[in-house]
Amino acid sequence: MFDLPGSWVWDYWFADDGEQYHLYFLYASRALHDPDARHYRASIGHAVSSDLVEWTQIADALVRSDAPAFDDLATWTGSVVRHPDGTWFLFYTGASLAADGKNVQRIGYATSADGETWTKAGGPVLEARGPWYETLDSGAWHDEAFRDPWVFADPGGNGWHMLITARAPHGPVEGRGVIGHAWSSDLRTWELREPLTAPSVDGFGQLEVTQVEVVDGRPVLIFSCLAEHATGARRAAAGGTWAVPAESLLGPFDIEGAYPLTDERLYVGRLLRRRTDGQWLLFAFRNLGADGRFVGGITDAMPVEWEGDRLVVRDDVRASVR
User: Fold this and answer.
1) Is 188 helix (H, G, I), strand (E, B) or coil?
2) How confident is the model at residue 99 (pLDDT cuts 50, 70, 90)?
3) Glycosyl hydrolase family 32 N-terminal domain location, by residue (predicted)?
4) Averaged over 185-194, what is the pLDDT?
5) Structural domain boundaries, residue 146
6) Is 2 within the bounds of a domain?
């Protein structure tokens, strides 16, 4: 669906303004040669489409700030929502380096009148802190995980919620991944709240790029985690994107009941409802090729449906993600 010949493209998210779909994506130059180096060179690109098939790249949305700043290493994954007054908000992860060379992640935002030209708000609005969230000084993980803000309006009209990739400060190291939570009345000022899930011996080291949606009347959570960052109980499944049926957009979420929606060839699954016919679609980025090396680029749309209590990729396209 979307790729760039001169750059690696990976994490991404959508916004729909009612006329065009907007695709915001992380990308970095292939001149780096090593795809693992892309993370510290990431900028947020932007493309638009009327049909989710043909995309036109336009001016980038955001780049990292000059040091010292919470986002002076890279700008990472986020989400876009529109305030009732018409202002667009782009929430994103800002990464910076600590003295020991590990990265620290915080969450900031930018605003726009048209969804295309963005102005950063300044410093971060949220960061990891105790007693609920693990910080870098624990020494248990390779970074201070506090990223991938997924923002949505409260179903009852009570402000806005943010789901966050975070870790608890207790429990098995490879099972401390939790869904962090914050709340705001206005999208500008945020209150950090306790996580919506708990660490588990059958869990994940990180629940990346969470998203919650009501698909055909049923709430579902999706997130991504590779075997190398999961507990032993999860590694054999070799899942890429995982799904969890839920009781509501705020849970409760039975993370121990999560199942793979894709294998490790596809990562960072995103759900989007097509405006023309209401069909729910899954997208992902191409993670591993046949040679086991990183590929990059975003897939075509894959229709999804419910089979019993499981959301699955529809039969006619399922073979492409096995």
Assistant:
1) coil
2) confident
3) 19-225
4) 98
5) 7-321
6) no
Q: Which residues pair with residue 306 across a beta bridge? A: 311
What CATH number is given to the structural domain containing 252?
2.115.10.20
Does residue 62 form part of some domain?
yes
Is 194 among the domain residues?
yes
The token pair that represents 163 in the structure block: 């789901």
Cβ count near 39 (within 10 Å): 17
Specify the 3-state DSSP secondary structure of 312. strand
CA dist 65 to 29, 74, 99, 256, Å? 18, 8, 18, 39
Is pLDDT at 321 greater than 50 in this prediction?
no
- What tokens were used for 274? 């097509």
DSSP string, 13-54: EEEE-SS-EEEEEEEEEGGG--GGGGGGG-EEEEEEESSSSS
Given a cut of 50, whether residue 145 has pLDDT beyond it is yes
* Residue 252 within any structural domain of the chain: yes
Q: Give the containing element (helix H, strand E) for 259.
A: strand 259-260
Token pair for 156 = 């009852």
Nearest to 225 by CA among 241, 211, 210: 241
Q: Are the C-beta atoms of residues 114 and 44 closer than 8 Å to each other?
A: no
Residue 31 has pLDDT above 60, yes or no: yes
Are 280 and 218 within 8 A, CB to CB?
no
Place of tokens 């986020």: 78
Rounded to an integer, what distance in angstroms lies between the CA atom of residue 155 and that of residue 178?
A: 22
Q: How many domains does the chain have?
A: 1
Contacts (Cβ under 8 Å, ≥6 apart) of 35: 8, 293, 294, 296
> What average pLDDT does range 299-307 have in this prediction?
97
CA–CA gap between residue 214 and residue 310 (Å, rounded): 13
pLDDT digits (tens, 9 = 90+) for 39-72: 999 999 999 999 999 999 999 999 999 999 999 9
pTM score of the predicted model: 0.96
